[in-house]
Amino acid sequence: MKSINWTGWLVFAAVVVVWEVAGRSSPAVQFYIPPASQISGSLIQIIASGEIAGHVGTTLTRFVAGYLIAAVIAVTAGILLGYFPLVHSYLETLIEFLRPMPSVAIIPVAILLLGIGDGMIIAVTVYASLWPILINTLDGVRHIEPTLIHTGKTFGLGRWRILKSIILPAASPYIMTGLRISLAIALILVTTAEMIAGGKGLGFYILDEERSLRNSNMYAGIILVASLGYLLNRLFLLGELGLMKWRRGLVAEEVQ
Amino acid sequence: MPILEVRGLSKSYRQLGGDITLAIGDISCQVEAGEFVSFVGPSGCGKTTLLMSIAGLIAPSAGQIVVKGAEVKGPPPNLVLVFQEFNKSLFAWRSVLGNVLFGLHARGEHSRATGTKGETLIELVGLKGFENHYPWELSGGMQQRVAIARALAYEPELLLMDEPFGSLDALTRLELEDTLLRIWEELGTTILFITHDIEEAIYLSDRIWVLSRRPSRIIEELRIEFGRPRNQIVTRGAPRFMELRNEIYRLISDGGMGETN
After folding, report:
1. What is the pLDDT of residue A56?
2. How many other C-beta atoms are found inside a 10 Å radius of the C-beta of residue A179?
3. CA distance B155 to B187
4. Which end of chain A has the smaller Cβ count within 10 Å, N or C?
5. Which of A217, A221, A183, A185 minimizes the C-alpha distance to A201?
6. Domain A46-255 - what CATH class?
7. d(CA B211, CA B35)
8. Are A51 and A221 in contact (CB under 8 A)?
């Protein structure tokens, strides 16, 4: 990994300073856009009081559940669809129709079928995170060099072992791309669904504080979601680097 | 009993437009165990199709392929194919050693001796010190050595090689030819080699079959009498070498003329 990007952090700090100055310009502005120092205060306060921990835990649990279920389903389905072109041709139109639909559009359907609660939020998250993983896995399997499969066959590998020891690793860079895209999508969907029908969680908290006119807390909640997204992404990249050692030299630049 | 018997093999393809192309007209031949035999012919004469059929990767349209007395229906055991596009046949996620051991692992061999066998072959093909490198870190010539070592580690009774040195520079090519001959003599395996390089075929082989243009058939069989071990300078400098080269060249040019249907 590259050393710390100092200029990047400097720009970040400059935005915080501008925010602070703007927030202090008038009381009216301060109500809508509290200065950074005030938001930081709220952030420390809600963390210290333990008020926010439960919400973060809930959001994280829903996120992990939804994301992992989506990953398992989508990788399996992607490999099968890639391996059996006939099945793919049957389902292609359906997939191409459902995929571009904004996933938030199914939240009402999920509420209708599953009611309000964890099940609904996880289901929506699974649905939305499925597509990038599915499409990328499918792409990965379909782009596999036929010579690799032939090589496996001449060494006497059967279908299952070709799948396991050739197709899966060969498609893994694509699968990783899908997993990384879905990481962000899963967090978006959890937060959105919580705003609509959460009862708990960061999404619920943010909207609830806004409705209660505690704007500084609302911003603190937003910062927490942003930090969560940032941390999850770093964690993912670290995991990818460990798992995909063989690509280290090839991906070093992308990962920075 | 010959290790390989090809009886009346022909293969046709249906092209995208629906036209049928006859790639292999009618090929019959026999290879004895321990032989080094080559097919030479003009490019596009169906050489790769022939090898893929023998390897059981594609089904012939007519005829029979028999390896060790059993008709080929799928990839036969104890047969390995080194592909022309060797760089595409290496597993990017496996190290050099991991690639070389692939066939042995596939066969369920995971012992210490397996690892040693892999290391020995890596040394034999001149890649010592690169065991833990990944294929993309290697040059084309080194990648081909990995593919050859992987095939040889499997100790196949029949090794098929599809223009394995085609995309290498001249010097690497000569060196790998000698490496291959040395290992072949040591292991006593049977090698069926495909090339469009006439001199390479003469230098390496016990016997050469000259193929016509599409639809290919065998125009001529030549026995190469040079003793072994052969030497790049002495063998290639022999007057008989030139005669053979010219004869094969003439056969290929003439054979092509009559076959342009």
Report:
1. 95
2. 23
3. 8
4. C
5. A221
6. mainly alpha
7. 19
8. no
Q: pLDDT tens across A129-151, in order?
A: 999 999 999 999 999 999 999 99
User: Which chain A residue has its CA at the smallest distance from B81's CA?
Assistant: A154
Q: Band of the pLDDT at B3, cuts 50, 70, 90?
A: very high
Contacts of the segment A214-218: beta carbons below 8 A, 24+ positions apart: A214/A42, A215/A31, A215/A32, A215/A34, A216/A34, A216/A38, A216/A39, A216/A41, A216/A42, A217/A42, A217/A46
- A8 contacts chain B (CB < 8 A): no
> What pTM, to 2 d.p., does this model score?
0.84
Is the minimum CB–CB distance between A16 and chain B shorter than 8 Å?
no
Q: What is the pLDDT of residue B258?
A: 46
**DSSP conformation class of B136:** G
Q: Model confidence over A50-83: pLDDT tens digits?
A: 889 999 999 999 999 999 999 999 999 999 999 8
Interface-testing mutation among B91, B137, B157, B163, with chain A (most A C-beta atoms within 10 A): B91
Residues in chain B within 8 Å Cβ distance of A147: 83, 85, 88-89
According to DSSP, the residues that pair with B13 across neighbouring strands are B21
Q: Please give the Cα distance from A223 to A207 (Å, whole number).
A: 13
A182 Cβ partners below 8 Å, 6+ apart?
A67, A70, A71, A74, A128, A129, A130, A131, A132, A133
Q: Averaged over B184-190, what is the pLDDT?
A: 91
Asked if residue A127 lies in contact with residue A192, where contact means CB atoms within 8 angstroms, the answer is no
Chain A positions in Cβ-Cβ contact with residue B57 (cut-off 8 Å): 150, 153-154
pLDDT in tens, A187-204: 999 999 999 987 899 999
Is residue A16 scored above 70 in pLDDT? yes
pLDDT band at residue A251, thresholds of 50, 70 and 90?
low
Q: Are B193 and B151 in contact (CB under 8 A)?
A: no
Q: Are strands B79-82 and B36-40 parallel, antiparallel or unpaired?
A: unpaired
CA distance A133 to chain B (A): 21
How many other CB atoms are there within 10 angstroms of residue A28's CB atom?
A: 8
Rg (CA), chain B: 18
DSSP string, B206-246: SEEEEE-SSSEEEEEEEE----SS--HHHHHHSHHHHHHHH
How far CA B164 is from CA of A57, B159, B160, in Å, comes to 58, 12, 10
Other CB atoms within 10 A of residue B84 CB = 19
Structure tokens at B46: 């169906």
